[in-house]
Amino acid sequence: MIGxxxxxxxxxxxxxxxSKVYRDTLGGDVSEPHTLPEHGVTTVFVxxxxxxxxxxxPYGDGSPIAxxxxxxxxxxxxxxxxxxxxxxxxxxxxxSEGARVLGDGNPKIGAHGKPVLFLHPKDFCGTLVELEQx
Length: 134
Known about the structure:
Layout: E1 5-11, H1 15-25, E2 29-30, E3 34-36, E4 41-47, E5 52-58, H2 66-71, E6 76-84, H3 87-96, E7 108-109, E8 115-119, E9 128-133
């Protein structure tokens, strides 16, 4: 059901500093920041030959990653994102097997302008999983 690894997301306390590390120290192709108010984050993507790294920083008072950063002040890995062909079929199959979809269970439009869902980390070896329809 899952396809390619789309990205690994890392929460960072300072988006400009993290972008500089990935761009200047590691030589990565780093995008401009993109704010997603409906998700409560500002993102930067580091484009790699085989996947992406998503740098995440809280945006607004209700940011869902603010607590993560409070508990991990230096930042850290937040989630992995896998591609799926049909997000609704994937959701239905996963739910039928007991997996929990976070939120109201309906896809939202993610940072790439495509539908996404998040799956409960307790159902996936302690890892928050994002599914993105391609």
